[in-house]
Amino acid sequence: MTPEAHPPDTQASRLRIIVALLVTWLAFGSTYFAIKIALREVPPLMIASVNLVGAGAALLAWRRTQVREKLSWGEWRSALLLGALMFFLGRAMVVWGSQFVSSSAAALLSASAPLWVALLGTVFFRERLSPRAILGLFAGFGGMALLVAPSGGEIRLSLTGVVSLTVSALAWATGALLSKRREPSVQPITATAMQMLAGGALVVLASGATGEWGRIHPAHLTFGPVAAVIYITIAVALIGFTTFGWLLRATSAALANTFSFVSPVVAVLLGWAFLHEPLTPRTILASAVILLGVVLMVTAPKPADPASTQMR
Which keywords appear in this protein's UniProt record, sorted alphabetically (predicted)? Predict the structure, then answer.
């Protein structure tokens, strides 16, 4: 049967992909703006714990209504390790570090995760990089150096914020590399929900240990920060992650991962328009160089890697 026999289906499929791409771009790009709003009244680890536990529980409950999967202790142990890396360190540190830098800087530093994945994969797992990917690495890290380097006439970034967000990107990259090298006995979305819950539980403990729960007074909370926490949980963790998972199945990994370089642009524009964050020439140049590096990394061809296939 020829492709022309099903034009409505093809058009509908393309429309769904376009809508899904827009959803991921806006969801992941607006998270940094929402975090800054939430931080006005809600402690950082509490934001992350509500986000992760709420989204993880909702995702897992939904999956249980769709299919019965055996959640073994082995899967939970793996979820604890990956959840600690990707969500406790990877996600919670983004929220915590956002206290000290602008939302646009947080987004751009977080966008370095694909660069760290490539670098760590090359160093520790002997993954081969194409020339385009190597160029992307140099461009991405060069842009980060330009963004964080001291400059007499412009606002300096907080070292605490830069270190926190760099650690979060490194932790996320490490978790992503480890997750690629194991075959879970459950579906990817179920594994993600388990990792969110496990990582969220660790964030809850950290939030309690640092005294955050005793510092918040529900009667004093206003609409904006509360709405921002709810938005992060629903729009980003639930809708964003599930839509991204669907895109990975429906289209290429390169297209699905375009959020890596589109969402920072969304974050920079939202921060400039609504939070009155300065958009200096150096920030614009650093943003362009970082995003060029990420584009090159995401779209680079993946050479065959005998060393990595032997490890699986």
Answer: Membrane, Transmembrane, Transmembrane helix
Read off the pTM.
0.86
Q: Tell me which residue of 126, 131, 86 sits closest to 110, measured CA to CA.
A: 86
Q: Dig out the tokens for 100 from the structure.
A: 């000290």
Whether residue 35 contacts residue 237, with contact meaning beta carbons closer than 8 Å, is answered with no
Provide the residue type at 47 as one letter: I
Q: What backbone phi and psi angles, to 5 degrees, belong to 279? A: -115, 85
Q: What percent of the chain has a predicted confidence (pLDDT) above 90?
A: 48
Q: Which among 301, 297, 304, 303 has a CA at the least distance from the CA of 258?
A: 297
Confidence grade of residue 306 (pLDDT, cut at 50, 70, 90): very low
- In tens, the pLDDT along 140-151 reads 999 988 888 766
Residue 112 lies in a domain: yes
Say if 46 falls within a structural domain: yes
Q: Which residue has the tokens 């819950």?
A: 197
Residue 226 lies in a domain: yes
Q: Does 5 fall in a domain? A: no
Domain that holds residue 120: 19-311
Number of domains into which the chain is organized: 1
Query: Which pair of tokens denotes residue 153?
Result: 């006439």
Q: How far apart are the first and last CA of the chain?
A: 39
